[in-house]
Amino acid sequence: MSLITIKNLWKRYGETVVLENLSFSIEAGEFCTLVGPSGCGKSTFLKMLLGEESPTKGLFLFEGKPFPAEPSAERGIVFQRYSLFSHLSVLENVMLGIELGASPLLGKLFGKAKKRAREEAIAMLEAVGLGDVLHHYPSQLSGGMQQRLSIAQSLVKKPKLLLLDEPFGALDPGIRADMHALILDLWKKNNLTVVMVTHDLHEGFYLGTRLLVFDKVRLDPQAPNAFGAKITYDIPLHDKKEKESVFKKN
Ligand SMILES: Nc1ncnc2c1ncn2[C@@H]1O[C@H](COP(=O)(O)OP(=O)(O)OP(=O)(O)O)[C@@H](O)[C@H]1O
Question: How far does the centroid of ligand 1 lie from the alpha carbon of residue 38, in Å?
C-alpha cells in the first residue's frame, strides 16, 4: 500500500481552481521534491498533506485511509520561517514538542516521563549538531542553527512524513550545503518519507529521489482562475547518474 494515494484531486478557493485533477501516489521512503512557478499551488498541496487544508474533491488517502483533517504528530512540517518560541531555550523548544504530544492539555510532563523527554530531546539536538547550545535562546543562534532547531522540533515527534516548505531558501550557500547533508542523513537514518517544496531546481534534483513539477497547462486570459496546476513532469531520480543525465537535458 502506498503511503499517500491521490486520485482525481481538485483544490479550489471560491472560483479559483488551484490544483486540477491530480492523480499519483507516494511510497514510504521516497524523498519527493516539488518545484513550479510561484502561485501554482505547491504550498497549498503541502497544507493539504499537513491537514491544514482539505481537498475540494477527489480521493486523498494516507496509509489507505482518508487523510486526518487536523495536523498530527505523524506529519511534521518545517517552514522557511522558523516556528520557534523565542522565550524558550533550544532544549525547551524541542522538549515542548514531546510534552505537547504526550500531554496535549497540560503541555507538561513530570518525573520519569520528563526525564525521558529530556534525554530524547538532547539526543535529537545532538543529531542535528546543536548539542553544545542546549541552553541558548533562538535569538542567539544563526539562521542555519535556527533551521536545525526547527528540524529537531519536527523530528523529535517521530513523524512518518516530513513536510519541508522551502526550508533552506533563506540560508547562505555554504550553510545550505551543510543542511542538505544533514537532511539526507536524517532522512536515511529515520526511515522518513519527505515531501519538500523548493524554488531551487538544483536543490530539487540533488536532494530528491523523485522530482514533481507543478504547472498550469491551460491558460485562458479571459478567465485566469479557471484552470489549476497539474503535475507536468514526474521524474524518478534514483541514482546520481540518472539525476545528472536528466539535469543535462533540461
Ligand atoms: N487561503 C486562501 N484563500 C484563497 N486563495 C488562496 C489561499 N491560499 C492560497 N491561495 C491561492 O492559491 C494559489 C496557490 O497558492 P500557493 O501559495 O499554494 O502557491 P505556491 O506555488 O506555493 O506559490 P509560491 O511559490 O509563491 O509560494 C494562489 O493563487 C493563491 O493566491
Answer: 8
For ligand 1, is residue 130 a contact (CB within 6 Å)? no
DSSP H helical segments within 76-196, as ranges? 90-102, 111-127, 143-155, 173-189
- For residues 188 and 53, give the distance between their C-alpha atoms in angstroms, rounded to a whole number: 29
The parent domain of residue 124 ranges over: 82-158
**Domain for residue 132, yes or no?**
yes
By most ligand atoms within 8 Å of CB, the mutation choice from 35, 44, 46 for ligand 1 is 44
Q: What is the ipTM of this complex?
A: 0.96
Spatial CB neighbours of 94, under 8 Å, sequence gap ≥ 6: 121, 124, 125, 149, 152, 153, 156
Q: Whole-prediction pTM value?
A: 0.88
The response to whether residue 44 sits with its C-beta less than 6 Å from ligand 1 reads yes
Q: What pLDDT score does 107 carry?
A: 65
Whether 12 maps to a domain, the answer reads no
Number of domains in the chain: 1
